[in-house]
Amino acid sequence: MVKKVGIGAVCSAPLRYMRPLRVIQTKHPQIVGTPRIEQLLALRKELKRLNKRLQVCIVFRHDDFPNEEIYCHERFCRVEVESPTAQLFGDIEADEDVEVVEEEEPTDELPAEVQPHSVGVDDRFLLRNDGFNVDDDRDPAPENIPVPGETLNDQQTWGWGGRCHRKVFGAADDKPKLIQLTDSESKLMTILSLFLCLFPATYLDEVLLAEINRNLDKEKARRIGLGEFLRFLGLWYYMATFKGVTRAQFWSTKDIDPYSGALIRFHKMMSKQRFDLILKSLRYTNRLAPAYKDKFHGIRQLIEAWNDNMIKKFRPSWVSCLDESMSPWTTRWT
């Protein structure tokens, strides 16, 4: 029999769906996984604004948040100990007679089942089911749809007016250069020495390799050195040159087939078990996660180290052309 919620009922609910967020974050600044908060004492049923819509919520008290009221959508509430029948909550609807608590809340996080940046039918269904407004209209605006046979007018012309705007503003005609190296010294560098010159060596030794070895120690596995790590990177780079080939096929025991699978085997360079273990142990930061949600925390230290090293080692040319930056983009039809 389903237990009903009422005044004095003891409930539990997923912590990530509890609100107000500012109150919850005083005790739980970062929620990992799907923990539940127990021993919630139900006070009343009330309309609250969630995701810009009025929704029926259960308001609670909890010992971790003295003198504060917290709440969640009624469907996330699980009754552990039912309240007396006389104290059960009735149904309420959003109408003019109901006093609405106008409290603006931040947008909920995506459900765990939804993949970031995905637009599948199942994902849209999950988002709508969780109360999110989903705009799945991907068609262009009517004014942007070209008429059959119409000449496209992109209002852009190619050409040069005879004036270099970079020189007008005093930019020097600099060539790309490795700082502190002469041109003759740069030409003598091998591909490996050039790669290591542009890779942040201190970060590689003190952060990346240290974190990998810390995780390998937990697995009671052999530690990794610089040479083995470069071999690991080289295998990754080589695999990236293939299309439609799975990682496992590079360690296949079948004979090489020119029409399917990988055209090389990596057994002599590194075992698949060792490769997968290094991949599992990869960490790009040794910093503690901040109290706020930083989606780039895992790679931010790598980005900073890379940029700092490039400032010290490399000077770009006075003109840089980014990939596709010369293409005119007007609508989805161009």
What does the model show?
The chain is α+β, with helices and mostly antiparallel strands and 334 residues long. Among the domains are: 1-115, no CATH class; 184-238 and 265-288 and 299-315, no CATH class. It contains 9 helices and 7 strands. It has helices at 21-24, 121-129, 165-168, 183-187, 191-198, 201-218, 226-239, 272-281, 297-313; strands at 10-14, 36-50, 53-61, 70-73, 78-81, 177-178, 314-315. It has a 5-stranded antiparallel sheet with strand order 4-3-2-1-5, with no helix packed on it. A two-stranded antiparallel ribbon has the order 6-7. β3 and β4 form a beta hairpin. It is extended, with a radius of gyration of 29 Å. The model is unreliable at 95-107 (pLDDT under 50).
SSE map:
Blueprint: E1 10-14, H1 21-24, E2 36-50, E3 53-61, E4 70-73, E5 78-81, H2 121-129, H3 165-168, E6 177-178, H4 183-187, H5 191-198, H6 201-218, H7 226-239, H8 272-281, H9 297-313, E7 314-315
Antiparallel strand pairs: 1-2, 1-5, 2-3, 3-4, 6-7
Main attributes?
334 residues; alpha+beta; 5-stranded antiparallel sheet; two-stranded antiparallel sheet; 9 helices; extended
DSSP helix fraction: 25-40%
Q: Termini, distance in Å?
A: 60 Å
User: What is the gyration radius calculated from CA atoms?
Assistant: 29 Å
Number of helices: 9
Summing up helix and strand content along with how strands pair, one would put the structural category as alpha+beta
Topology as a string of helices (H) and strands (E): EHEEEEHHEHHHHHHE
Report strand %: 5-15%
Mean pLDDT: 82
Domain PiggyBac transposable element-derived protein: 193-332
InterPro entries: PGBD (IPR029526)
Protein name: Transposase IS4
